[in-house]
Structure formats: C-alpha cells, structure tokens
C-alpha cells in the first residue's frame, strides 16, 4: 500500500487537509477516522440542497429551511453513533461537500448556515463568529475541513495510519 501524501494547512480557526491518496478506500478510511471526533457527541447534521434520498430524511425530527435561496435540511442528533458516522462517510452528499457535521448541543443559528454557504461558494475566505466544531468536504472530497478544532495538525497526522 502506498503512503499518504496529505497536505495540511491551518489559517486561523480552519484546518484543511488536502488528500493525494492512492484510492477512494484510503480516503474513506482516513475521513472516517476524522469523523470519529463526533462519536457519542451531540451533533447537527446539515444537508444542502437535499434530495429525496438524503440521509437526513431517514432520521426522525428533520426540518427543512431555505437560506440564501438554498434548501437546507437540519437534523439534531443526540449521542451520535458509529453507524451514523459510517453512513455519513459513505454518503455522496458528504463527499460532495453538501453534508456538514456541527458539534453542538444548542440550536444552530440560521445565520451560521448562511455564512457557511458564502464560504462554500468562495464569497468569504474564512468563517468567523462561530465557535463549534464543524466538519465538511469540498465539492469533490479532495479536501476535508475542520473548523474550530482544538486538535493541532500534528494530532491529526497519526489518523492517516490504518
């Protein structure tokens, strides 16, 4: 098996990890180990432009809003389990940057979603005013982002190993 060649960058409160991995299986394994940061935590699942097959619709208590002309599906998850993390990791929406996880036990303000949409579209190059841990991929899953992580880049590098 070839080694990982990830590129780690940190700008203010945002860590980006650009992968240059040999296979989608390696990428999924690495991303799953990062997703484990959310295991047994209260999380918000945010799906942008949800489809009828979206993972969020399979869960009870979802609600749909519109923000900046974008449909957004919100789920509040108590004690996120490993099966949900596996499903998120394998979902096409996560791999395309349309599914985000936010560690939070409080209501997620819609303004934060609007700020994220601007960041995702390249209208903002940073996200401020938001303190919770957030995890998401870019549009082709070649990069994963951790916002407001208390982990340092050196803490994340060991997650590359199987």
Can you offer a commentary on this structure?
- The chain has 162 residues and is α+β, with helices and mostly antiparallel strands.
- It has one domain.
- It contains five helices and eight strands; from the N terminus they run ββαβββααβαββα.
- An eight-stranded antiparallel beta sheet has the order 1-2-8-7-6-3-5-4.
- α1 packs antiparallel against α2.
- It is globular, with a radius of gyration of 15 Å.
- The termini are close together.
- The model has no long low-confidence stretch (mean pLDDT 82).
The overall average pLDDT, rounded, is 82
Shape: globular
Q: Helix-strand pattern, N to C?
A: EEHEEEHHEHEEH
Give the helix level as a range of percent.
Answer: 10-25%
Q: In order across it, which strands form the biggest sheet?
A: 1-2-8-7-6-3-5-4
Radius of gyration: 15 Å
- The total beta strand count reads 8
Which structural class best describes the helix and strand composition? alpha+beta
Question: Main beta sheet: strand number and arrangement?
Answer: 8 strands, antiparallel
Low-confidence segments, given as residue ranges, are none
Ends: how far apart? Answer: 11 Å
Q: How many DSSP helices?
A: 5
Strand residue content: 25-35%
Total domain units = 1
The oligomeric state is single chain
